[in-house]
Task: structure prediction
Amino acid sequence: MRAFILSLRTLNMLSGCVGGLWLLYLGYWKVVLGALAISGIVATALPFVLGLALIIPGLVTIPFTMLSASSRNPVVRGILSGPMTFVTSGIVATLQGAWSVLVFAIIWKNTGPEAIIPAILCSYSTSVACWHVLAAQDVAGGGGEASAFSSVIQQFACIALTAYVYLNRDAIYLDEMIFIFGVPALIGVIFWTLIVAVGVAKTPRMVDA
Result:
Protein backbone atom coordinates (compact mmCIF):
# COMPACT_ATOMS: atom_id res chain seq x y z
CA MET A 1 0.00 0.00 0.00
CA ARG A 2 2.87 2.36 0.80
CA ALA A 3 4.38 1.92 -2.67
CA PHE A 4 0.98 2.39 -4.29
CA ILE A 5 0.32 5.63 -2.40
CA LEU A 6 3.80 6.87 -3.31
CA SER A 7 3.13 6.12 -6.98
CA LEU A 8 -0.17 8.01 -6.90
CA ARG A 9 1.43 10.92 -5.10
CA THR A 10 4.19 11.11 -7.74
CA LEU A 11 1.64 10.98 -10.57
CA ASN A 12 -0.45 13.73 -8.97
CA MET A 13 2.60 15.93 -8.44
CA LEU A 14 3.59 15.53 -12.08
CA SER A 15 0.10 16.39 -13.32
CA GLY A 16 0.03 19.42 -11.02
CA CYS A 17 3.43 20.64 -12.21
CA VAL A 18 2.54 20.21 -15.87
CA GLY A 19 -0.87 21.85 -15.44
CA GLY A 20 0.50 24.66 -13.28
CA LEU A 21 3.39 25.52 -15.61
CA TRP A 22 1.06 25.38 -18.59
CA LEU A 23 -1.37 27.78 -16.92
CA LEU A 24 1.50 30.11 -16.04
CA TYR A 25 2.57 30.11 -19.66
CA LEU A 26 -1.00 31.04 -20.66
CA GLY A 27 -1.01 33.89 -18.15
CA TYR A 28 -3.23 32.38 -15.45
CA TRP A 29 -0.76 33.01 -12.65
CA LYS A 30 -3.50 34.03 -10.20
CA VAL A 31 -5.15 30.63 -10.61
CA VAL A 32 -1.89 28.79 -9.98
CA LEU A 33 -0.94 30.87 -6.94
CA GLY A 34 -4.46 30.54 -5.56
CA ALA A 35 -4.39 26.75 -5.98
CA LEU A 36 -1.02 26.52 -4.21
CA ALA A 37 -2.11 28.79 -1.35
CA ILE A 38 -5.42 27.08 -0.68
CA SER A 39 -3.82 23.64 -0.94
CA GLY A 40 -1.30 24.57 1.73
CA ILE A 41 -4.01 25.90 4.03
CA VAL A 42 -6.23 22.86 3.55
CA ALA A 43 -3.34 20.42 4.02
CA THR A 44 -2.52 22.09 7.35
CA ALA A 45 -6.11 22.24 8.61
CA LEU A 46 -7.28 18.88 7.25
CA PRO A 47 -6.40 16.69 10.26
CA PHE A 48 -8.22 19.06 12.62
CA VAL A 49 -11.27 19.32 10.34
CA LEU A 50 -11.50 15.55 10.03
CA GLY A 51 -11.16 15.13 13.78
CA LEU A 52 -14.01 17.55 14.45
CA ALA A 53 -16.20 16.06 11.72
CA LEU A 54 -15.82 12.53 13.10
CA ILE A 55 -16.46 13.28 16.79
CA ILE A 56 -20.27 13.07 16.79
CA PRO A 57 -20.52 10.09 14.39
CA GLY A 58 -17.93 8.32 16.52
CA LEU A 59 -20.02 8.84 19.63
CA VAL A 60 -23.23 7.73 17.91
CA THR A 61 -21.68 4.49 16.66
CA ILE A 62 -20.00 3.58 19.96
CA PRO A 63 -22.78 1.08 20.89
CA PHE A 64 -22.20 -0.82 17.64
CA THR A 65 -18.47 -0.89 18.26
CA MET A 66 -18.91 -2.17 21.83
CA LEU A 67 -21.38 -4.85 20.75
CA SER A 68 -19.05 -5.90 17.95
CA ALA A 69 -16.13 -6.24 20.37
CA SER A 70 -18.14 -8.27 22.86
CA SER A 71 -19.89 -10.63 20.44
CA ARG A 72 -18.67 -14.21 20.17
CA ASN A 73 -20.24 -14.67 16.75
CA PRO A 74 -17.77 -13.59 14.01
CA VAL A 75 -20.57 -12.82 11.55
CA VAL A 76 -22.30 -10.58 14.09
CA ARG A 77 -19.00 -8.83 14.86
CA GLY A 78 -18.50 -8.12 11.18
CA ILE A 79 -22.03 -6.80 10.72
CA LEU A 80 -21.86 -4.57 13.80
CA SER A 81 -18.59 -3.05 12.61
CA GLY A 82 -20.37 -1.83 9.49
CA PRO A 83 -22.12 1.32 10.80
CA MET A 84 -18.94 2.85 12.22
CA THR A 85 -16.96 2.13 9.06
CA PHE A 86 -19.69 3.31 6.71
CA VAL A 87 -20.41 6.53 8.59
CA THR A 88 -16.78 7.58 9.04
CA SER A 89 -15.84 6.65 5.46
CA GLY A 90 -18.94 8.41 4.20
CA ILE A 91 -18.06 11.62 6.02
CA VAL A 92 -14.52 11.54 4.65
CA ALA A 93 -15.85 10.93 1.12
CA THR A 94 -18.32 13.80 1.54
CA LEU A 95 -15.54 16.19 2.55
CA GLN A 96 -13.41 14.96 -0.33
CA GLY A 97 -16.29 15.45 -2.74
CA ALA A 98 -17.07 18.97 -1.53
CA TRP A 99 -13.41 19.96 -1.84
CA SER A 100 -12.92 18.34 -5.26
CA VAL A 101 -16.08 19.79 -6.82
CA LEU A 102 -15.23 23.23 -5.40
CA VAL A 103 -11.71 23.11 -6.82
CA PHE A 104 -12.85 21.99 -10.27
CA ALA A 105 -15.62 24.60 -10.37
CA ILE A 106 -13.41 27.52 -9.28
CA ILE A 107 -10.48 26.73 -11.56
CA TRP A 108 -12.80 26.06 -14.48
CA LYS A 109 -14.64 29.34 -13.92
CA ASN A 110 -11.41 31.34 -13.88
CA THR A 111 -9.80 29.87 -17.01
CA GLY A 112 -10.65 30.16 -20.68
CA PRO A 113 -11.30 27.59 -23.42
CA GLU A 114 -7.65 27.67 -24.47
CA ALA A 115 -6.69 26.24 -21.06
CA ILE A 116 -8.90 23.14 -21.05
CA ILE A 117 -6.17 20.54 -20.54
CA PRO A 118 -3.97 22.46 -18.04
CA ALA A 119 -7.05 23.52 -16.05
CA ILE A 120 -8.14 19.88 -15.75
CA LEU A 121 -4.63 18.75 -14.74
CA CYS A 122 -4.34 21.52 -12.14
CA SER A 123 -7.85 20.85 -10.80
CA TYR A 124 -7.21 17.13 -10.50
CA SER A 125 -3.87 17.56 -8.76
CA THR A 126 -5.15 20.23 -6.37
CA SER A 127 -8.19 18.12 -5.48
CA VAL A 128 -6.27 15.01 -4.46
CA ALA A 129 -2.96 16.46 -3.24
CA CYS A 130 -4.00 17.30 0.34
CA TRP A 131 -5.62 13.92 0.92
CA HIS A 132 -2.67 12.01 -0.50
CA VAL A 133 -0.31 13.88 1.81
CA LEU A 134 -2.47 12.87 4.77
CA ALA A 135 -2.69 9.27 3.57
CA ALA A 136 1.08 9.09 3.03
CA GLN A 137 1.69 10.39 6.56
CA ASP A 138 -0.70 7.82 8.04
CA VAL A 139 0.83 4.94 6.06
CA ALA A 140 4.34 6.05 6.98
CA GLY A 141 3.27 5.93 10.62
CA GLY A 142 2.65 2.21 10.35
CA GLY A 143 -1.10 2.23 9.73
CA GLY A 144 -3.53 4.36 7.83
CA GLU A 145 -5.20 1.68 5.72
CA ALA A 146 -8.53 3.51 5.92
CA SER A 147 -6.91 6.83 5.04
CA ALA A 148 -5.03 5.25 2.15
CA PHE A 149 -8.14 3.58 0.79
CA SER A 150 -10.13 6.81 1.06
CA SER A 151 -7.52 8.58 -1.03
CA VAL A 152 -7.81 5.82 -3.64
CA ILE A 153 -11.59 6.26 -3.65
CA GLN A 154 -11.13 9.97 -4.23
CA GLN A 155 -8.66 9.23 -7.00
CA PHE A 156 -11.20 7.24 -9.01
CA ALA A 157 -13.99 9.71 -8.25
CA CYS A 158 -11.82 12.59 -9.48
CA ILE A 159 -11.00 10.64 -12.64
CA ALA A 160 -14.74 10.40 -13.30
CA LEU A 161 -15.10 14.11 -12.51
CA THR A 162 -12.22 14.92 -14.87
CA ALA A 163 -13.85 12.95 -17.69
CA TYR A 164 -17.18 14.72 -17.09
CA VAL A 165 -15.63 18.19 -17.13
CA TYR A 166 -13.70 17.49 -20.32
CA LEU A 167 -16.62 15.93 -22.20
CA ASN A 168 -19.13 18.55 -21.04
CA ARG A 169 -16.86 21.59 -20.98
CA ASP A 170 -19.43 23.74 -22.78
CA ALA A 171 -22.15 23.12 -20.19
CA ILE A 172 -21.02 22.09 -16.70
CA TYR A 173 -23.54 21.94 -13.87
CA LEU A 174 -22.82 21.72 -10.16
CA ASP A 175 -25.45 19.07 -9.41
CA GLU A 176 -24.08 16.84 -12.16
CA MET A 177 -20.54 17.25 -10.83
CA ILE A 178 -21.71 16.20 -7.37
CA PHE A 179 -23.49 13.17 -8.84
CA ILE A 180 -20.51 12.14 -10.98
CA PHE A 181 -18.19 12.29 -7.97
CA GLY A 182 -20.72 10.78 -5.57
CA VAL A 183 -21.47 7.54 -7.43
CA PRO A 184 -17.91 6.07 -7.48
CA ALA A 185 -17.30 7.49 -4.00
CA LEU A 186 -20.37 5.70 -2.63
CA ILE A 187 -19.35 2.46 -4.32
CA GLY A 188 -15.90 2.80 -2.78
CA VAL A 189 -17.31 3.45 0.70
CA ILE A 190 -19.56 0.39 0.49
CA PHE A 191 -16.66 -1.73 -0.76
CA TRP A 192 -14.41 -0.56 2.10
CA THR A 193 -17.17 -1.24 4.62
CA LEU A 194 -17.43 -4.82 3.35
CA ILE A 195 -13.64 -5.26 3.49
CA VAL A 196 -13.55 -4.09 7.11
CA ALA A 197 -16.54 -6.24 8.06
CA VAL A 198 -14.94 -9.35 6.60
CA GLY A 199 -11.65 -8.52 8.32
CA VAL A 200 -13.36 -8.07 11.69
CA ALA A 201 -15.27 -11.32 11.25
CA LYS A 202 -12.06 -13.22 10.51
CA THR A 203 -10.19 -11.71 13.47
CA PRO A 204 -10.71 -13.65 16.72
CA ARG A 205 -11.57 -11.77 19.88
CA MET A 206 -8.61 -11.12 22.15
CA VAL A 207 -10.26 -13.06 24.94
CA ASP A 208 -10.69 -16.03 22.62
CA ALA A 209 -7.25 -15.88 21.04
About this structure: The mean pLDDT is 80. Residues 29-60 form the longest helix (32 residues).
